[in-house]
Amino acid sequence: MLNIENLKVAYGKAVALHDVSLRVEEGELVTLLGSNGAGKSTLLKTISGINRAMAGKIMWQGQEIQNQPSHLIVNHGIIQVPEGRAVFPDLTVAENLRMGAFTRRDERGVAKDLKEVFDLFARLKERRTQLAGTLSGGEAQMLAIARGLLSEPKLLMLDEPSLGLAPVVREAIYHVIQQIYKEKGITILLVEQNARWALKVATRAYILENGHVTMEDTGAALAANPDVQRAYLGH
Ligand code: ATP
What we know:
Layout: E1 2-11, E2 14-24, E3 29-33, H1 40-47, E4 55-60, E5 63-64, H2 70-76, E6 78-81, H3 93-100, H4 107-120, H5 122-126, H6 137-150, E7 155-159, H7 167-182, E8 187-191, H8 195-201, E9 204-209, E10 212-218, H9 219-223, H10 226-232
Parallel strand pairs: 3-8, 3-9, 6-7, 7-8
Antiparallel strand pairs: 1-2, 1-4, 4-5, 9-10
Helix pairs in contact: 3-6
InterPro entries: AAA+_ATPase (IPR003593), ABC_branched_ATPase_LivF/BraG (IPR030660), ABC_transporter-like_ATP-bd (IPR003439), ABC_transporter-like_CS (IPR017871), BCAA_Transport_ATP-bd_LivF (IPR052156), P-loop_NTPase (IPR027417)
Protein name: ABC transporter ATP-binding protein
Pfam family, one: ABC_tran
């Protein structure tokens, strides 16, 4: 579905991704692990068309899409939920959700998806007329994910969805991500600091260090790997 080959990305002279290759097949949940500054956000932003690829290819369903503008990437169904719960604070919850659907013309489909999203996130339904700026951190993260779902994702990319949240809120986010994956069947590329959970739910995972992919395997195999355990699982 998504095939990245030998991708190189730099900020000025500083190379953030060297020769990165990665794939996500339809129906997978692929986790990207790596310490701060490893290049995880850079990779997602390059897929989304926010950062430029200097070399290499990003193939989507057999077509080269690297360096296409973001709106075209969104039209392909590649939807990124950015880090840091980016919601529009002066719009209501319902208006934020509508923003996720603003390129869609199928009003019926949007209404159906809105209903499904409210079934998934009861809290957002209760708060649909409230300004997004008044939500808690966890609710805002839920809203950012829900808005992504209204963009009809074929591939949903989540950048550290649990960052900075209290444990009980984090658990709720994990639960919702699993529902999106298992019940809605949406393919997911996940960047997540909590390696224990992220490897458990992943079909496959990649480890990114200093802009290089250093390991790739099933989530279970990586979780059993002593080097991974030492570096990411606190053993
Ligand atoms: P984090 O978990 O901290 O978000 P990350 O793995 O997502 O880390 P990136 O944010 O992709 O890492 O950063 C990769 C490298 O690129 C780092 O060295 C970072 O300092 C650098 N970098 C990221 N964004 C920019 C930018 N806008 N301008 C210059 N350098 C940047």
